[in-house]
Amino acid sequence: MMLLRSCSLALRCRNPRISIRAFSSSRSAGRDASEDALDLDGWKTVMRSQALREESEGPSRSALDDNRELVEMWHQAGKFVPKNITDEQLEDLSRLATRSAKKKYLKFLAIKESHKISKKEKQERKKSEREAQIVTFKENVKEGEQEEPKNTFLLRFWSSSADRVQSWRAAQAMRFGQPLVYDMSYEHHMSRRELENTAAQLMESEGWNRRATDPFHLHFCGLQPDGAYLRELRRRYGSQTWDQLLITATERTHLEMFPQQDLVYLTADSKQVLQEFDHSKVYIIGAMVDRSIHSGVSLANAKRLRLTTARLPLDEHLDWECGAKNLTLDQMMRILITLKDTGSWEKALEFVPKRKHAGFTRVTKSRFVPNDSAGIRFPAGVQSRTDGRNKQAERDKRWEDPH
């Protein structure tokens, strides 16, 4: 041991830059290892405090930023994605789990954006063409090639005048018209895209009702103030236009607004058929677009509230071929408006898509006729062999005995 210490001292004296660690006993080695462990714990503490300080100084990268960067990267790579995307659309994108679902959603947004751009370009092109026609007309009038427009007894009907007339009718309907209720309690049963389609159909329905001769008094019942329905409607209409609509939008339910005996819930799953339009009833339509066709949702809701239900007589008046008997909200509005004005099912059901039926039924709905002779059911227009033989025997008998 003394030899090792003397050797280390000799080396240090010769070259002070060289540091030689002398061998020690097991106790000194354990003490050095514990010191190294203490240093590692201190380093972890310092790094953790630095990370916490960085988080407090600036916000961390969110999922929206990641999705925005992903969309920008795909756009630079030449993929079919929208150029502009909102925070709400980014939130919807972040909820999608798979990469293929994100691609499909971005493709849908890109198609929607391209339609908007093409529509805007078309409007600008028409506007420039109209301005060019006006300039050409004025130049021709100055040069004498074309006469100036003359006075006429025909008045030009401006679109603002039509808006005033329609608004006056809607105001009268709010005071004296028959109520029509949209049940807005289905926002939790639909996806984001289905909710957007529902809002678009509600806007279409409100427009058809406003343009009607005798409009309904529309009630949007169960519309929550902080719900997705109201946000989507305000986004599409605009806050100012939405506040000026001549409809009743409330978070109260239809049972709180009207007597229970006057309510009739229209649903395609009901067993009761609406034979004729009753002007004293308050009809309810479920504001729902269900692409997966979960049947029975509105019927279960009506039964839970103990309401009278009814369905349109589609099977009784139409030769239905294919597809579900669920109609869109704007189709239901046009059917009810026509039925209210005319009382004719044939005129009202003309708004059912032609692709779903083969026309109105003129004969019985049964495709089979009973054969009493044999007790067997044969298709319409088909007879059994026994019936054919009997008819032939009757003809032969009449031929032999003409009297």
Written overview of the protein:
The chain is α/β, with parallel strands linked by helices and 403 residues long. Helices cover 54% and strands 10% of the residues. α3 (63-76) packs across α4 and α7 (192-210) packs parallel to α13. It starts with a helix and ends with a helix.
Topology:
Blueprint: H1 2-14, H2 26-57, H3 63-76, H4 87-95, H5 99-143, H6 159-176, E1 179-183, H7 192-210, E2 217-221, H8 228-237, H9 239-244, E3 248-249, H10 254-257, E4 263-266, E5 282-286, H11 297-304, E6 308-310, H12 314-317, E7 318-320, H13 329-342, H14 345-348, E8 357-360, E9 368-371, E10 376-379, H15 385-400
Parallel strand pairs: 1-2, 1-5, 2-3, 4-5, 4-6
Antiparallel strand pairs: 7-8, 9-10
The total strand number stands at 10
Q: How much helix is in the residues? A: 40-55%
Q: What structural class do the secondary elements suggest? A: alpha/beta
Spatial sequence of strands, sheet with the most strands: 3-2-1-5-4-6
Order of helices and strands: HHHHHHEHEHHEHEEHEHEHHEEEH
Calculate Rg over CA atoms. Answer: 39 Å
Distance between the termini: 152 Å
Give average pLDDT, whole number. 77
Shape: extended
Low-confidence stretches: 1-27, 363-386
Biggest sheet record: 6 strands, parallel
Beta-strand residue percentage: 5-15%
Work out the helix count. 15
